[in-house]
Write a structure and sequence with these properties.
Urease, subunit C, domain 1, 25% strand, TIM Barrel, globular, alpha/beta, 17 helices, 3 domains, 542 residues, Diaminopimelate Epimerase, Chain A, domain 1
């Protein structure tokens, strides 16, 4: 086009008011952009899957959209990011007996019987039991499982994923007897007899007898997990540990447009998987980011696998132990730092957190922007809080604080509990916190996460006492932890986490404004719609 024609076109557009063609215009909304200024807008425009304008109602006249949404004053937020979840486990749970909210071993046996009558599995699997919810809070004994299933192996995972309850048949198939010992794990006994409870690394002996899920089962599981994620307003999930095989399965499903959910996949601490990606390099698409390694420093507090500096308050003479030596952790940290991979280490007990902080601070001295993470950061000794800094991000799950408060004080005692689930203190030292749920250990619902972070109470129990309220986050901080800070923790803050020009048009429409309603109402918030790239992936209304 020559200059005279271009000039005539500009004059024509001015005279008739030309409008730029775009894919979507959303207006008449209360839009929390979560940008650096925390601006609130009323309209935005989407083209080719990204925000191209954010502002007020003047955008209605400026653009010609293929689709228009009048939000009728509803609140809109950036798509939520769950910084610590387990997609495959969430989906695969449909193949397992659901033992959540059980109250006794007798109830567990009845549920497992019904499950087996329906599915007739060669090895019976279940998940979700938690002895802390029972009248007798001691670990269960497998005698009743043995009587009900003498010839079929039964493997039941504790809610935290760090312990199994198995029957005698499973013990025999795994070659476990009273003389078996495994470093970094426990095989519990009662009066010298195995009770069927295996903690942390000892689980691996039983995992060897469980048949691998088929590719078809995993695809079904991932599709189910995606559905649940979108229903809960999640547009990105951080998969906390995945094998090379499972990472490439997710990638293949995304390329086929079967999985639209964005996934930040942490490589599991397996030499085969780590060596592959370290040699091949990082994997990054618009939907998948493989840039980190998930490591376990210890187990869980509920199953007394968390490594403590001093004895458990309810089990004198026992501190548990680390799952990895300092030398091994240091070697892996140096390798990942050299290759510019992020290290995300599970650390729950104060001994585990101290170890990780020592290693991180030593290895990261010369690294400018590593964004290494401590997953959970659940119990910190008072003198170790100053070891957190801008290079070390606490990735925490606020729902743990309130779901554990009924028994955590028994494990830790009145004084030590003050350094547990200390999210505000962690924020003060690190500058940001990334929030997640650890689903399916906890409920995937991000509004329960938001509520637990702010109110420090069990969702649905408005009359309960707040747990250590001085460590509550503000609504502003909780929202950041689910959006922009979470994206930052994934090295993705330039492409998501806020509603800004140039970023992916991932956003959610809610039926109430969680920044303004009574805090007790927040857990009841409903997703009106979840949109990815400006396209609906879940809708309750639209």
């Amino acid at each position: 086009m020559n200059k005279s024609n271009l000039f005539l076109l500009i004059l024509f557009c001015i005279s008739i008011g030309c409008s730029e063609r775009v894919d979507l215009l959303v207006h008449n909304a209360k839009i929390y952009t979560v940008n650096a200024e925390f601006d609130v807008a009323s309209a935005f425009v989407v083209k080719d899957g990204k925000f191209v304008a954010v502002g007020g109602e003047e955008l209605v006249e400026k653009y010609k959209p293929a689709n228009t949404v009048d939000a009728q004053g509803l609140a809109i937020f950036p798509g939520f990011i769950d910084s610590h979840g387990h997609l495959l486990s969430l989906g695969l749970n449909q193949f397992k007996a659901d033992l959540r909210d059980t109250e006794s071993i007798d109830q567990i046996v009845e549920i497992v019987k019904k499950h087996q009558n329906k599915y007739n599995q060669k090895i019976i699997l279940g998940a979700g039991w938690d002895e802390n919810q029972w009248t007798d809070v001691s670990f269960p004994f497998n005698q009743k499982l043995n009587a009900a299933f003498p010839n079929t192996a039964v493997v039941l995972e504790r809610i935290d994923g760090h312990a199994f309850l198995v029957n005698q048949k499973a013990l025999e198939m795994a070659g476990i007897d009273s003389n078996t010992a495994v470093e970094g794990g426990q095989i519990l006994k009662h009066k010298g007899q195995l009770n069927g409870v295996l903690v942390d690394n000892t689980k691996q002996l039983v995992e060897k007898i469980i048949p691998e899920y088929s590719k078809e089962d995993k695809i079904e599981a991932l599709l189910k997990a995606q559905e649940i994620s979108f229903e809960n307003g999640l547009t990105t999930v951080d998969q906390a540990g995945a094998s090379k095989q499972d990472i490439y399965l997710i990638d293949s499903l995304q390329k086929k447009n079967l999985i639209k959910l964005r996934v930040y996949a942490m490589i599991e601490n397996d030499p085969h998987s780590i060596n592959h990606f370290v040699s091949q390099g990082k994997l990054k698409t618009d939907y998948l980011n493989v840039n980190s390694v998930k490591v376990f420093a210890d187990g869980a507090l509920g199953s007394r696998g968390a490594a403590l500096i001093e004895d458990y308050s309810d089990q004198k003479g026992y501190k548990s132990s680390l799952l990895i030596s300092k030398d091994s952790l240091m070697d892996l940290a140096n390798l990942l730092a050299e290759k510019s991979f992020q290290m995300n280490t599970h650390a729950i007990g104060d001994a585990a957190n101290r170890l990780v902080l020592e290693v991180y601070n030593q290895v990261l001295r010369t690294k400018e922007d590593p964004r290494w993470r401590i997953e959970h950061a659940q119990l910190i000794a008072p003198e170790d809080f100053p070891r957190f800094n801008a290079k070390i991000i606490p990735s925490v799950q606020p729902i743990h604080a309130v779901s554990d408060m009924g028994w955590a004080i028994d494990r830790l005692g009145n004084e030590r509990i003050k350094g547990a689930y200390a999210y505000k203190d962690l924020l003060d030292w690190s500058g940001i916190v990334a929030l997640g749920t650890d689903f399916p250990v906890e409920d995937i619902n991000p509004f329960k996460t938001f509520y637990a972070a702010v109110a420090r109470k069990v969702p649905g129990d408005q009359f309960s006492k707040a747990f250590q309220p001085r460590n509550a986050l503000s609504r502003y901080e909780a929202l950041l932890g689910l959006t922009r800070w979470a994206a930052y923790a994934n090295f993705e803050d330039n492409e998501k986490g806020s509603i800004e020009v140039g970023k992916f048009a991932d956003f959610i429409i809610l039926d109430q404004d969680i920044m303004q309603v009574e805090i007790e109402s927040v857990p009841n918030t409903r997703i009106v719609a979840t949109l990815l790239n400006g396209k609906i992936v879940f809708s309750n209304r639209l």
